[in-house]
Amino acid sequence: MTRMRLAFCFSLLAIACSKKAEESAAPVRETESAVGWSEYEKPAAKADAGSAPKSRGEALFGRSCAMCHREIGMGTGLLARRTDIAKLEDRDDLTAEFVIQAARIGIGNMPAITRGEVSDAELRVIAEHLASRHD
């Protein structure tokens, strides 16, 4: 009887875990996101004109990189010790290929950014946004 109860409890636990995994699985966004704004990236319709992203690259940077690479981010603080211009969006010496390589393999204290976090197409848009200051 005890073995049956134990088996029953394990089967309930397995079912609960599999349902939880299905619910938490994020939908995979294909290259559709590379073509246009996804629902998560679109500027708010009633956003203040000064706060809405001006480009898709800026919106993706804000979603994926800004927590470390804007005003009070850890990456900005660490870069301030090494470079004169710590904010990535203010730099004019970044090439798109450098940004992509640094993001994918990591650089210094920055961990590698996986394709699960930022797709190749999204990373290309972010890199081109940062490199556009290089012109």
Report low-confidence residues grouped into runs of 5 or more.
19-35, 39-49
SS field, number of helical segments: 7
What is the N-to-C order of secondary-structure elements (H for helix, E for strand)? HHHHHHH
From the 3D structure, determine the CATH topology.
Cytochrome Bc1 Complex, Chain D, domain 2
The description of the largest β-sheet is: none
Rounded to an integer, what's the Rg over CA atoms? 21 Å
| CATH architecture type | Orthogonal Bundle
SS-based class: mainly alpha
Quaternary arrangement of the chains shown?
A: single chain
Number of domains: 1
Fourth-level CATH superfamily: Cytochrome c-like domain
The percent of residues in helical segments reads 40-55%
Shape verdict: elongated
Distance between the termini: 75 Å
> How much beta, percentage-wise?
under 5%
Give a count of the beta strands, DSSP E runs of length 2 or more: 0
Average pLDDT over all residues: 75
User: Given this structure, which CATH class is correct?
Assistant: Mainly Alpha
